[in-house]
UniProtKB/TrEMBL annotation:
The lineage of its organism: Bacteria, Bacillati, Actinomycetota, Actinomycetes, Mycobacteriales. SUPFAM superfamilies: Thioesterase/thiol ester dehydrase-isomerase (SSF54637). Transmembrane segments: none annotated. Residues 6-136 form the FAS1-like dehydratase domain. This is MaoC family dehydratase N-terminal domain-containing protein. Pfam families: FAS1_DH_region (PF13452). InterPro entries: FAS1-like_DH_region (IPR039569), HotDog_dom_sf (IPR029069).
Length: 153
């Protein structure tokens, strides 16, 4: 059962140092042929590169990621959506980002096979060394009130 008291919880800040090699590894893993990720000493990050935030949060310690406070049941839960908004050019290799995640909202809506769906949204803000908002990531997880596989029988 999702913990609605998690709304508003904020994780401790964590730092992401953008490295050229990691940007290229990500581009290779996603099979991107975009030369922007391969050429020069300071390639920009692919739009979805910021999903790697989870590794940086893990390395920063358990307080950096407030998602565990949502208590989404992994037997009936799944990743539902991921969005990214950039407030200017994408960050580049050599940039240092300061990130903070917060549980934005938890809400319900009717589902088909799984009954009521409970959705939880986490927002992560990425700021540059001057404190300017560079990007924002929105992650949505969903939990069904019953097992959809059993509901369809």
């Amino acid at each position: 059962m999702v913990n609605t008291a998690a709304v508003g919880r904020v994780g401790s800040p964590f730092v992401i140092d953008l490295e050229r090699g990691k940007i290229r590894e990500f581009a290779q893993a996603t099979q991107s042929a975009n030369p922007e990720y391969w050429e020069g000493e300071t390639p920009s990050v692919p739009a979805t590169f910021l999903t790697t935030q989870m590794f940086w949060q893990e390395w920063a310690g358990p307080d950096a990621n407030p998602w565990h406070q949502v208590e989404l049941d992994q037997q009936r839960g799944m990743h539902a959506e991921q969005d990214f908004v950039f407030f200017g050019p994408p960050p580049r290799a050599g940039d240092r980002l300061f990130a903070t995640s917060r549980i934005e909202r938890i809400y319900e809506k009717a589902g088909a096979l799984g009954g009521t769906l409970t959705l939880a949204e986490m927002i992560t803000e990425f700021r540059d060394e001057q404190g300017r908002l560079v990007a924002e990531a929105s992650l949505t997880g969903v939990e069904t009130d019953r097992n959809p596989a059993r509901a369809s029988r």
